[in-house]
Amino acid sequence: NAHIICRTRDFCFVLNSKEVRLKSSPADLVTETDQQVEKMLISAIRRKYPQHRFIGEESVAAGEAVELTDSPTWIIDPIDGTVNFVHRFPFVAVSIAFTVNKQTEFGIVYSCVEDKLFHAQRGRGAYLNGKPLCVSGQTDIHRCVVVTEIGAERDDLALSTMTSNICRLLRLPVQGVRALGTAAVDMCQVATGGADAYYHIGMHCWDIAASTIIVLEAGGVVMDTDGSEFDMMSRKVIAASSSAVANGIAQVVQADSFLGDFSRNRA
Ligand SMILES: O=P(O)(O)O[C@H]1[C@H](O)[C@@H](O)[C@H](O)[C@H](O)[C@@H]1O
Ligand SMILES: [Mg+2]
Ligand SMILES: [Mg+2]
Predict the structure, then answer these.
(1) 3 pLDDT exceeds 60?
(2) Sheet strands side by side (includes 236-240)
(3) Does the keyword Transmembrane apply (predicted)?
(4) Mean pLDDT of 64-92
């Protein structure tokens, strides 16, 4: 269904006919399309698997709890890159991950406008439109293109944390810093080898649950921004082409002060 919405000629018509609302900040948007796509996905999956649980971005925004249990759980971001969607900036994705016992079994990221289907199943590799994916294998941080996100936060603490992290990387220097406006597609660039690392502070599980397994199955490394084991509920992630690059990013990127503010104000 998301494919139909993203690919039909009336993509702009769908957008024009839809209301845009603000969520946690003036840069955190939601449209009726986000909500419709999530409802369609959940109802279609629930018809086949009525016992399964769901964590959906817009269901959580409507008040549902964010609780990852051992039960089979679908983690859904119906439109990752809603600001891009509203502005017709051509990087918009549907992200769907499936976990059992809190372990991701498979992930799908469909970059709608590019018509690129990224997917991976645990132990069975990662693919883009059916072709196998492999990370760049880069180990020298000075030879890296690093992807991150600007985020929707506009308070001084979040902005100073985000900009100082980018400046520290640029001063290393790394060869490039990029941000596409969709965490899921950002992270998939690491799986393709087109980028060598991705880091993000403040994202939610639904933004990156699918792209995380895609990077891992493409031979990449995923960890917390402090170098500890990755936890998709922690709102901090580094995905990289190698442990050397991941640890190099962890030494430069700081999160604590920003996250302290997060833990007080957000789910
Ligand atoms: O709200 P959606 O699902 O569009 O997710 C995006 C976040 O809103 C951004 O803050 C964040 O920076 C990323 O762009 C993330 O993809
Ligand atoms: Mg998202
Ligand atoms: Mg979204």
Answers:
(1) no
(2) 176-178, 145-147, 197-201, 236-240, 221-223
(3) no
(4) 97
- What structural domains does the chain harbor? 2-132 (3.30.540.10), 141-259 (3.40.190.80)
**Ligand 1 atom closest to residue 151's alpha carbon, by position in its atom list:** 12
CA of 184, closest atom in ligand 1: 16
pLDDT band per the 50, 70, 90 thresholds, residue 129: very high
Q: Does the beta carbon of 217 sit less than 6 angstroms from any atom of ligand 1?
A: no
Residue pLDDT, tens place only, 214-236: 999 999 999 999 999 999 999 99
Residue 210 has pLDDT above 60, yes or no: yes
CA of 214 relative to ligand 1 center, distance in Å: 18
> Per the annotation, does 57 bind a ligand?
yes
The verdict on the CB of residue 188 being under 6 Å from ligand 1 is: no
- Average pLDDT of the residues in 143-150: 98
Q: Relative to the CA of 203, which ligand 1 atom is closest?
A: 11
Cα(159) to centroid(ligand 1), Å? 15
Q: Is 70 annotated as a binding residue?
A: no
Q: Mean of the per-residue pLDDT values for the chain?
A: 92
Decide if pLDDT at 156 tops 60. Answer: yes
Residue 38, annotated as binding a ligand: no
Q: Is the CB of 56 under 6 A from ligand 1?
A: no
